[in-house]
Amino acid sequence: MDRRPSRSDPSHQDRRLVVNDPRGKKRTIAPSWWQRLRSHPLAKLGPGLVTGAADDDPSGIATYSQAGAQFGLDMLWTMPLTYPLMSAVQVMCARIGLVTGKGLAANIKVNFPPWVTTVVVALLLLANTLNIAADLVAMGEAAHLVTGLSHLHMTTLFVVVTLLLQIFVPYHNYVRYLKWLTLSLLAYAAVMFTIQVPWGEVVLRTLWPRLRLDSNAAAVVVAVFGTTISPYLFFWQASQEVEDQQRQQDAPLVSLKPSLGKREFRRVAWDSWSGMLFSNLTAYFIILSTALTLHVAGVRDIKTAAEAAEALRPLAGDFAFLLFALGILGTGLIGVPVLAGSGAYALSEAMGWRWGLERKATDAVGFYGVITVSVLAALVLQFSPINPIKALFWSSVINGIVAVPLMVVIILLSSKRSVMGCYVERGWIRVLAWIATAVMGMAVIWMFLPHSGPSS
């Protein structure tokens, strides 16, 4: 039986309290601000919102800033193109978790040769660790720019905070704060009010870019695509649907009647498309703000998100700098747990370990061990000869390359009746997912083809 409460259930509404006053008359007390806050539509969004916000982590901000600084308005087209494509893939991943009651790695392990799982999980852990390292560097530098405190001390503080939250606080408790922390992404939209925007040209160049077809442009396109349609998001959202299902003691949809799954599919669609829209609009504004400031001023090489924030100060003013820097801190606090958690989900499912952010650390030692090692390894990278910032761009490129075969695997999983039962994917979501795979594949091939002409 489907035990998930419906939208009409009183538990999903603001309850007004009816009490007796001193004269014995009944009067109604409106819900407190906290009750109203918890019943807000934003609070009811699920894994899709957090997944979308995590997509704009500090390493993603650095990639988008580099795209805007190097190519100006000519990289804006990537966001409206990737929005429906990434949304379709995320919806598909969420449905796999919801229907099967298992995460992505567990499904791959059962339905494909062992080497497929090994390669995918190994590359995911490598890319995630590099991304976490870059995120921590950017967060430490942004905190230093805002507070003046040592960036190493601030980075260490962020490591301690994120680990303590993930290990000792049940996810359903602190995810509420992560959801509201996604509002920090609005900082990048607010930057638009601090600079002059030629909207006519912006719309024209979004629809009709003037992009030179060389290897540099191809590498940046693949990096943007790899940052936007990223493998760690696939694993995170699928496993989060399973976590929610287990916490509410719901059965996997594959064991229920088809009519009972329709409402859940609508919820997943709303959650995923809304979260990805939020993500892509933010990325669009990051590219736009850096294109209209850094690119115009001749600043074409941005290595970190904090460097982009600092470069904005003399061009767009202190307020724009502050908004950009605070956005880095907010998205980092979302992105690091998602990156570490997605790797832990994948490896634990592949190894058959107990896993879950709702479990106590003593009940899932391997799972929390992966989270701890990933974050601490990222911290150690900052003190090693390896420059995680230089590795970041290429890890985005690797993500773009790895995403292609992984999306093929996801589509095949969602098309198998042995996996999805009566919920086999047949409609336009599947068509969009195949288009996403083809677009990513063509971008990767384009990057490796010889190109004539000078590079940017």
For the biggest β-sheet, the strand order reads: 1-2
CATH first level? Mainly Alpha
Tell me the strand percentage band. under 5%
Any idea what the CATH superfamily is called?
Amino acid/polyamine transporter I
- Number of spatially distinct domains: 1
Distance between the termini: 59 Å
Average pLDDT number: 80
| Uncertain residue ranges | 1-15
Number of helices: 20
Global shape: globular
Order of helices and strands: EEHHHHHHHHHHHHHHHHHHHH
Cα-based radius of gyration, to the nearest Å: 22 Å
Give me the count of strands.
2
At CATH level 3, the topology is Amino acid/polyamine transporter I
Helix content: over 70%
Largest sheet, in brief, is: 2 strands, antiparallel
CATH architecture: Up-down Bundle
Structural class: mainly alpha
